Amino acid sequence: MLFRDGSRWLVLAIAVLLPVGLFISSALSKKESKDLETSFPSLSALVRTLHTIDTFYVDEVDMDKLLKQGTRRLVSSLDAISRVELAGDDQKQAPADVGLNFMLRNGAFVVISKEKGSPSDESELQPGDILLALNDDPVIGLTLDELNSLLRGQVGSEITLTLSNSEFAVKKVTLTRQTYIPVPASASVEENGIIVFRCCRFTDGTAKVLKEALVELRGVPLTGIILDLRDNIGGSLREVRDICSRLVRSGPLYTLFSREVSKPVQRDDSVNAIKTNVPVVVIINRQSVGEAEVLSACLRGHRIARLVGEASFGFALWTECIMTTDNTKVILATSEIRGPFGRKIHNVGLTPDIVVHPEKGADPQLEEARKVILNWAPIEEEPAEKKAA
Predict the structure, then answer these.
(1) Please, which residues have CB within 8 angstroms of residue 60's CB and are 6 or more apart in sequence?
(2) CATH number for position 137
């Protein structure tokens, strides 16, 4: 009786969920699994719930909008980066933002980094702060995409952020949205021959910054390289592979673990590796995320670099864009990224070889990195439990 009376909601539910359903059905058919209805018994409960909402809710509900929002939330609930772009969605973005990068940790939005030259750059906001509200509206329950959309707006418009710091002190900061040119990476050559490469995001051209710093050293002995990956939001795995290939001469750089297979990713032979053994130190902290952790795990796994600082964030997933029959894009985490020899990163993070906590008004982590370079000693192999953790 319910399916006869509520049949239009069954059709509507299937129409909205069909893009995902078709993909799943296709994948299941290869394994000769049961049909979609049998495989997803809760689908009938969804239809009944939709019919109940449409019939009894106090206000009239735009059911198509509700279903689309539910589909977005469903995919976003899987992890911090999986999402869906439904066919017909307006993908236009407002022209200005405040230059803050966030990540979800235990259900809370954590400030990972502030873009150099952005409205937030000189603000009192600090990486590690937890976002509580935007313009006094709580952000709990939002997806990462929804948060980033709310942070954007017209040039000159203001937005007030309510945050809590590590000492649980609450503060409000008002920022004015602007356009700016991001500077994701920079490098400097110190008098002692140490290259300090700072990177807050891996984007196109990031690896080139390190390459140019190495070229700048021509005629000057290279003492060592410091890769400062603190407050790094991650980004392009291609750029990470390029940097790893410049420092690793042979062997896998990292491994992609899907449900059924593991795939070691080898170095890029088109990238010329440094010919001599050079001391390398990677500085990480609690806001070193994703590809920053993959780079760190690669160099540590090959005993090329020591890690200095604090334990990293613990997020390492590889996404793929799956197009459905109606041009809906499902950006889905399909693999876990591990170190070159299987060391687990996701939900675990990396523990530095030398733990150094930050201090106000000083940079003991960078100073320790310099000391390690200048007093370099061979790196011991990682314990077996760490390599395959």
Answers:
(1) none
(2) 2.30.42.10
- Select from 20, 53, 81 the last residue of a domain: 81
pLDDT category of residue 2 using cuts at 50, 70 and 90: very low
Check whether residue 375 and residue 325 sit in a common domain. Answer: yes
State whether 380 and 254 are in the same domain.
Answer: yes
Question: How many other β-carbons are positioned within 10 Å of the β-carbon of residue 317?
Answer: 21
- CA gap 106, 165 in Å, rounded: 15
Could you give phi then psi for residue 323, rounded to 5 degrees?
A: -85, 135
69 and 140 together in one domain: no
Across the beta sheet with 305-309, what order do the strands follow? 185-189, 194-199, 224-228, 280-284, 305-309, 354-355
Whether the full predicted model's pTM is greater than 0.85, yes or no, is yes
Q: Residue 90 falls within a domain, yes or no?
A: no
For position 207, what pLDDT does the model report? 96
Burial class from Cβ neighbours inside 10 Å (0-12, 13-18, 19+) for residue 36 reads: middle
Which of 159, 226, 229 shows the shortest CA–CA distance to 199? 229
Same domain, 196 and 55: no
320 and 250 in a common domain: yes
Question: What one-character-per-residue DSSP string does 351-362 give?
Answer: --SEE----TT-
Alpha helices in the chain (DSSP H): 2-5, 7-29, 36-39, 43-56, 63-76, 144-151, 206-216, 237-247, 291-301, 364-374, 384-387
CA distance 312 to 113: 14
Look at residues 196, 200, 245, 201 and name the one whose alpha carbon lies nearest to residue 216: 196
Domain tally, the chain: 3
Q: pLDDT tens digit string along 243-253?
A: 999 999 999 99
My answer on whether 190 and 166 are in the same domain is no
User: Are 143 and 75 within one domain?
Assistant: no
Domain ranges, residue 23: 2-81
Rounded distance, CA 60 to CA 269, Å? 61
Within 10 angstroms of residue 203's Cβ, the number of other Cβ atoms is: 14
User: How many residues does this entry show for the chain?
Assistant: 389
pLDDT tens by residue, 30-67: 433 456 667 778 888 888 899 999 999 999 999 999 99
Judgement on whether residues 169 and 192 belong to the same structural domain of the protein = no
> Using CA atoms, how far apart are residues 7 and 271, in angstroms rounded to an integer?
59
Is residue 378 in some structural domain?
A: yes
